[in-house]
Amino acid sequence: MSAASNKPGPTSYAFTFVCQKGELEGLALILAASLKRSLKCKYELIAAVPSPTDKWGELSKETYHLLAQMSVRIEYITNPISGEKQGDFLTNKIYCFKIPTTMDKLVFVDSDILCLREFRGDVLLDAPFSAAPTFLATGQNWDKVYETMGLPFPKTTMKALFSEDLQPPYFNSGFVAVDAQLAEELAGTWLDCFHHLDESGILTNNLYFREQMSLAVAVIKMGLQYNVLDENYNFWVRARPLDVKALPYFLHYTWPNPPIYNQPVLKSLVRSLIAEYPSMKQFLVQSRWKYYLRPDFIVSLNRTMFYANKQFKQLIANLTKYTLHG
């Protein structure tokens, strides 16, 4: 893992995340708690709550109480995208970039991220736009994408963060830092690119990543100067175990559930954050972190059962292949 500079960067940061009814409610709370503990720069925390409630649900009173306890500002966002297609709900993050802030940088953070160590600002975030590459090369039809958008195909390439496949500029949208004065323009361009590509039909086999691919196109269309961040800003815990001597700032855990990780540093962090905000536990027992709320031997058992089930499925697949093909 390459070391982040941790040198003072922009003066101030607005860390913004989505908090909505369901599992994201608990994930957003523990993210906020980790940010509150580890941010040592000038910052504000903003929870973007999707509305209307008949579409996205209503947060509990305790969630609002916890967010207030952590000094998190609440902003309501309205997303007219139907939600009928796979990945539509991911477009909530685009509307987060429309939220006003007096901070220098607006930093969007996916709700399934945790801040693992002290962050005091970083010159790596000095560029107008900063983000890490996608974990894998999940983009498709890039030539048709740029042709459809009427844009020249990018001359530059970047490596996927963990597979290291070469690809056109393509950023993981889980951690995005942008100059606050450019954030609203980025949101508008991003939405235009999303709708254009969605209506073109060229991404029908890649619906889940429409939002992420359209971000890359928006950055190119705006001609934004960008910094390519390393895994310190978007470490994918499924890629490999954490190095406790060189923890990343921001860890992206995604699916599947944490028992397969069984990493002491995560287990310790989750438990300590719950100890600091005890009422948060009621939300986490309904989330993927529920496994870390159980006794250690149960956590280990969950992990063992997961791997045993995975190996059993692989055995069946191998036997089936052998039977069919001799």
List the helices and strands and how they pair.
Blueprint: E1 12-18, H1 23-38, E2 42-51, H2 53-56, H3 61-69, E3 72-78, H4 92-96, E4 105-109, E5 113-115, E6 129-133, H5 142-149, E7 158-159, E8 166-167, E9 171-179, H6 180-200, H7 210-222, E10 226-228, E11 235-236, E12 250-252, H8 264-276, H9 281-284, H10 296-325
Parallel strand pairs: 1-2, 1-4, 2-3, 6-10, 11-12
Antiparallel strand pairs: 4-9, 5-12, 6-9, 7-8
Please tell me about this protein's structure.
- With 326 residues, this protein is of the alpha/beta class.
- It folds into two domains: 225 residues, Alpha-Beta Complex (Spore Coat Polysaccharide Biosynthesis Protein SpsA, Chain A), CATH 3.90.550; 71 residues, no CATH class.
- Helices cover 38% and strands 18% of the residues.
- It has ten helices and twelve strands.
- The strands form three sheets. A seven-stranded mixed beta sheet has the order 3-2-1-4-9-6-10, with helices on both faces.
- A hairpin with a 6-residue loop joins β7 and β8.
- α6 crosses α7.
- The chain is globular.
- The chain starts with 11 loop residues before the first strand and ends with a helix.
List keywords for this structure.
326 residues, alpha/beta, seven-stranded mixed β-sheet, 2 domains, Spore Coat Polysaccharide Biosynthesis Protein SpsA, Chain A, globular, three-stranded mixed β-sheet
